[in-house]
Amino acid sequence: MIQGSSSFGSFVKTICMAGLYIHIPFCKQACHYCDFHFSTNTQLMADLVKAIIEEIHLQKNYLNQEIIQTIYFGGGTPSLVPASQLHEILAMIQKQHTIADDVEITLEANPDDLTATNLSELKKLGVNRLSIGIQSWNTTLLTFMNRAHNAAQSQRAIDLAREAGFLNINLDLIYGVPGQTLNVLQNDLEVLIRNSPEHISTYSLTIESKTVFDHWRRKGKFAESTEESVARQYQLIMESLSQAGFLHYEISNFAKPGFESKHNSSYWSGSKYLGVGPSAHSYDGLSRQFNVLNNYTYVKSISEKTIPFEKEILSDKDHINEYIFTSLRTHRGCDFNKVQQKFNHDLLSQNRDYLLQLEKNQLVTFSDNLLKLTNQGKLLADKITSDLFVS
Length: 391
Ligand code: SF4
Description:
This protein has helices at 45-58, 83-96, 116-125, 139-144, 151-163, 182-194, 212-218, 227-243, 262-268, 295-303, 316-329, 336-343, 347-360, 375-378, 381-388; strands at 18-24, 68-75, 99-109, 129-135, 169-175, 199-204, 247-250, 253-255, 273-276, 281-283, 287-291, 309-313, 334-335, 364-367, 370-373. The chain is an alpha/beta fold. It folds into two domains: 18-268, Aldolase class I (TIM Barrel, Alpha-Beta Barrel), CATH 3.20.20.70; 333-388, no CATH class. The strands form three sheets. The chain has a nine-stranded mixed beta sheet, with helices on both faces. The model is unreliable at 1-15 (pLDDT under 50).
């Protein structure tokens, strides 16, 4: 409960780990909703992999010799990269860094790329976590979104991954797509749960600028789902996955106990990470770096031994706001003591009335200076976090 004065309890335990993110900027085809950095022209693949390997070498001191606990191949579509090239990337990481014995190595894959052969190769490379872009089992929705796979390919990919020995699988689920009724979503959830993944990441469709959906919307050809229907879908997801034994450990992420994504958890706990490849971001505890978004410019610049990035030094205010944003999204919550002790900033006295109102409306709980969103509050997470931001 919110009381008269803040007390000084224990810190939220910060997990100390450094992560490496490798961005593979190629896709077979463009999904109609996606604004990530990728190209459907894969001609530059070999040069880009070479540049990534060179960047790992050039950035060898960025993490200040911290042990690498997580490696994440994201994109784009990393499952398009031949195993021999992934092997070269991993070999360079190993050469430049100390890798933890229990390192988590995740690779994002699209169902249509996974075969018994490449899954066995990925396993041999040490990939121990697969994140498969299922999105939905509904053919009409998959076609509407211009996904490159169908439901049968999704099922086959999961079965093959299990046969290859993958014991830690994330499946992506999208919701809020026009035409995705509660019944369609219910079916998607039932099939997902039947497949017993260790982790499920959910994405609410947002219409990003310069995507096909954005173009359709401008032309009046796209009827967006209403806020109420998206909220009902999110509630259905929370209820179904909680009943199926998943821990709702981050606003969009659900895991069987012990299978929370170590890599993403390190982002949310403020650990350092190095992002390699075009559009990748890095964080060293003091600043953020953003690599250039263009594949050709990236390759050219790295060939000249220059990393093409922009850098932003974070102020105390930035650190506090990032902490509020990321911590409130997690089940651990936002620890006001931590903000007080680390930044000498009293979040409680500045937000007392607002917090009382949130608590009264059952949108948050506040105990031992830990603020957590309730399920109802999660529906308003963006508004609540931005209201708490320090200006
Ligand atoms: S496969 Fe993934 S990264 Fe590529 S266009 Fe589709 S959603 Fe975007």
